[in-house]
From TrEMBL:
The keyword Isomerase does not apply. Mn(2+) binds at residues 103, 130, 132, 134, 248, 250. InterPro entries: Ureohydrolase (IPR006035), Ureohydrolase_dom_sf (IPR023696). Belongs to the arginase family. Its cofactor is Mn(2+). GO terms for cellular component: cytoplasm. This is Arginase. The keyword Hydrolase applies. Binds 2 manganese ions per subunit. GO terms for molecular function: arginase activity; manganese ion binding. Pfam families: Arginase. PANTHER family: ARGINASE (PTHR43782).
Length: 323
């Protein structure tokens, strides 16, 4: 079981275009995430990137939305801050848990994990759980929102400013003699699951097909079962040394996760995601986690008063950490 965890709060939602997710990190803490970790005998601490990152104004936006990708400068700057903090956590041998905020934040968190893996000559695998593919580039995006680009960016496709954030070493220095390609995520080291039927565009499907990225839609899992996914996960875990899990809460069914901007009427169920988390924990290779797109404005509570979305996110995290 991982016993030392850094919660990295990133109160930023300009990449999503819809306000509210910036309040997610603080809400996670106020609703007891630190206490949940403590009850599981884990040592944790909370780091607020807006308050402690040294660039507070970036989080509020310094420009108007324009161009192919709105707020591109702000997204890139926040990604750099996230990358530095995540890398420092990994360097200390702790587990970074990055709390969003919108999913563009993962450009920085997983980018840092790629850097750390490269330094150790390790291979990083990513399990991306999302109702959307997040595989647009600046040339294909329909919404012009950066939260639709992070997976493509990490794979080396997207605005140069974003791709450089994912590829550059900490503080703008390249890592040793590694070429740029080695600091991008390998398509063979990614598995995507949870896609909804009406949540993606044709360009994203074409991107996945071109790069041969395995993905398991919610419909596939419902009709064909989970055995194919678990076989792919076992294969991935056998081929990589480190594992990052990136969860967009809109992949979960709205009955258990109403606290998102895009509620999902056919999302993943509680038992399914907790079983998935336990399986990933058993690999012993977890190095970091994203919990993204939590919007407490839409949160609801159960009969016992527990916040539904924050609660299932906490339970998922604890399972991932082996509690």
């Amino acid at each position: 079981m991982h016993s030392q965890v850094d919660l990295i709060g990133v109160p930023f939602d300009l990449g999503g275009g819809c306000s509210g997710a910036r309040d997610g990190p603080r809400a996670f803490v106020d609703l007891g995430l630190l206490q949940d970790l403590a009850h599981a005998s884990m040592i944790s601490r909370y780091y607020d990137l807006r308050e402690q990152g040294g660039m507070r104004e970036i989080f509020n936006g310094t420009s108007t939305p324009s161009g192919r990708v709105h707020f591109q400068y702000e997204v890139a700057q926040v990604a750099k801050l996230v990358s530095v903090r995540t890398f420092d956590t990994l360097r200390l041998g702790r587990i970074p848990v990055v709390l969003g905020g919108d999913h563009s934040i993962s450009i920085g968190s997983i980018g840092a994990a790629l850097h750390a893996a490269a330094l150790l000559e390790k291979r990083l695998g990513v399990v991306w759980i999302d109702a959307h593919l997040d595989a647009h580039t600046h040339l294909t995006t329909h919404s012009h929102r950066a939260h639709g680009l992070p997976l493509a960016t990490l794979l080396g496709h997207g605005p140069e400013e974003f791709v450089e954030c994912a590829r550059m070493g900490i503080n703008g220095k390249r890592i040793g003699s590694y070429c740029e390609a080695s600091l991008s995520l390998s398509p063979s080291h990614v598995i995507h699951l949870g896609r909804g039927e009406d949540h993606c565009e044709s360009e994203e499907y074409a991107f996945f097909e071109k790069l041969c990225i395995p993905e398991f839609s919610r419909k596939h899992l419902h009709e064909e079962g989970w055995s194919g996914l678990y076989a792919s996960l076992r294969d991935l875990c056998a081929r990589v040394d480190l594992l990052w899990v990136s969860l967009d809460l809109d992949s979960l069914d709205h009955s258990i996760a109403p606290g998102v901007y895009y509620p999902n009427p056919n999302g993943l169920l509680r038992e399914e995601v907790l079983s998935l988390a336990s399986t990933l924990a058993a690999s012993g290779k977890l190095c970091g986690v994203d919990l993204m797109e939590y919007n407490p404005q839409f949160e609801k509570r159960n009969d016992d008063g527990r916040a539904l979305t924050a609660g299932v996110a906490s339970d998922f995290l604890l399972c991932l950490l082996g509690a």
